[in-house]
Design a protein that fits this description.
The complex is a heterodimer of chains A (259) and B (480). Chain A is α/β, with parallel strands linked by helices. In chain A, helix 6 links the parallel strand 7 and strand 8. Chain B has 480 residues and is of the alpha+beta class. Helices cover 33% and strands 28% of the residues of chain B. In chain B, the strands form six sheets. Chain B has a five-stranded antiparallel β-sheet with strand order 14-20-19-18-17, with no helix packed on it. A four-stranded antiparallel β-sheet of chain B has the order 5-6-1-7, with helices on both faces. The longest helix of chain B is centred in the middle third of the chain and has 22 residues. The chains are: A alpha/beta (259), B alpha+beta (480). At the A-B interface, strand 5, helix 4, strand 6, helix 5 and helix 7 of A face helix 15, strand 12, strand 14, strand 17 and strand 19 of B.
Amino acid sequence: MASALDLVLQNPAIWRGNDCARVAVPSVPSGFAELDVQLPGGGWPAGALTEIYAERPGVGELQLVMPAAACLTQSERWITLVAPPYLPYPPALAAHGVKLSRLLLVQAPAVDESLWACEQALRAGSCGAVMVWLNQVHERALKRLQLAAETSGALVLLFRASRSIPASPAALRLHVSRSESRTVVRILKRRGGGMPAPVTLDLHGTLVERSKIKSNLAADERRWTPIKKEKSTSVARSPVSSERQPQPKSLFRLPLTKS
Amino acid sequence: MLWLALHFPTLALDVYTRGARAPSPLAIASSPGNNAVVLTCNHSAHHCGVWSGMPLAAACALSSELVVIARDVAAERTALERIAAWALQFTPAVSIARPAEVLLEIAGSLKLFGGLNRLRAQLENGLAELGYSFVLACSPTPLAAQLFARAGLPARIRHRDALRAGLGQLSVDAFGLPLESGTLLRAIGVRTLDDCLRLPRDGVARRLGQKLLDTFDRALGYIPDPRPNFIPPADFVAALTLPAPVHEAEQLLFAARRLLAELCGFLCATGNGAQRLAFALAHEDRAETWFTLDLTAATRDLEHLVSVLRERLERLALPRPATAITLKSELLLPTPSRNLSLLPDSREHAEAVGRLIERLRARLSSGAVKGLDTATDYRPERAWQICEPGNGYGAQETRPVVRPLWLLASPQPLREIGAMPHYQGPLALLAGPERIESGWWDGGDVARDYFIARNPAHALLWVYRERRHDGGWYLHGFFA
């Protein structure tokens, strides 16, 4: 029965309401096959504004764009980070495959300056992506950013932390949150229409797994007892401990006693 | 040999007026005294009825707005030198002829610049950018080119044969005769050079002196006329007096652009690029305001320098209106010129980023734009460093460590309720501990146990428990 239905649905004359229109728009693959399927063009739209809403940090909003960032920087395109709320931690970026020599960090004191810096970066034409963190921003400014993105052909990823989701001219709008153990990406708006079901991605699974190997507390994570103040297995210890410092006094005393 | 003469008829005025877009009525007095006459004046003064040669008192009576400045011969001399330095980009043989001409020997440059017409067009555009009014004339001898330019004739004579016919039309007065010789020639009905050359040579030599004949011969190219080559100074320092005090960034930029255009010509001529430029803005009753433009790479691109300066000027707070601008090149580096390429290459890419960085830094301060790099240290807060953009090496970690993408600038203390850390609710520890104990040798001693924790909103945090002092909990990052 199901196969018969599939056969019917394969007819090109049938269009399903929740389908996304396949359009050949330039894009950068997001690196997550489940997400790419839902995005028109099969990735982050190049030359357009993408808004990513995450109410609080730590839900995987940056990991979501890391494969694309790695791909762009490895092909020698620059990524400009404008006004990030915290430090984008270089060792973690490097571990995700991002080439640090192609990163430009811009700290702007105000929203106007951030927007100006984005426009400059887009106009320079050598940036593959501009990531900007803004909370309160006027719709007109977003429109301007969208136009700048169109002329540059670069990815513009706007990260917002607001709880409410106002109207915006962005080509793609995502909401990122986290359930029990997976990151949930809801597509709020996309070109080509349709409201697909949320995409769940396992962004942190490997992370927890990898560090659990060494963990002696993995058995019961909730009933954790404080560590006793004693020498335990140290992962990173200083090369020479302070107790073992040599005592140079005796060396000097030796010739003196002889005379 | 082909000489191009640049004559600056209103140099005395231009050294003042070129700093403003639409200057107010301005007249240059021949001397600072009371019984001076108007030497020259600008258009708006001319509209008020002022003309050159008019007594100063009469001119002042015509317009209350008229600003009178005494002629500054030294400023004119340095202006000519700077024009000569700028003109060195077109030919290595540039010579200054006082009071108001610069001569260029361009026979060897014609091919490079695509012919005489194109070279002239480039010179004209360039001089207009510098803000001088000029007359351009070219001829096979330097003196003839000078005479044509001085007479206001934009001649373009390329061959010696045509020189005689062209020069013959000039009035003998143009040769700067002594007074009695001039009177004598006029008395015998000699008006032009042709008339004079028709007279018997020995007679002219006897009555008017051999010197005059030599001048004619030099202009016609019968005897040599060597000119000293101008040697440019090693550094570029240029000042521009503004006709009226200025406090708007846009007006300052207009004046500064003139100086930058001079600088770029100079850099082009010497094969250098500027990496650091110092500007000084003079005020009427205050010390000068200094600021510098630091560039990531040496450049001599005028438009780029202007755009960087625009951002810098918008950030600058002036205590008083500026009366003069001085531009000094502080760091000059040899910058080879490049072959043009058909397709954009990686070098152009790098240059575009360099320019972006400069523009951003000019507006946001240089500390606001940086690159990131890793550092070899176990302590998370020291495992990274700021570097120049493009220099981040990012050594790949060999150990499989787990690090968050967001790091807090300083660890945030967490509330502890019933031995459990809280951040927007109680935290569940998912993995850990990773013990980091390091840095006793440099005073930044840490002893911490790091955990991956999850709060009730399912956000993943990087927290640690201090192993010394209070043993409290701290938030250090987000697994964003």
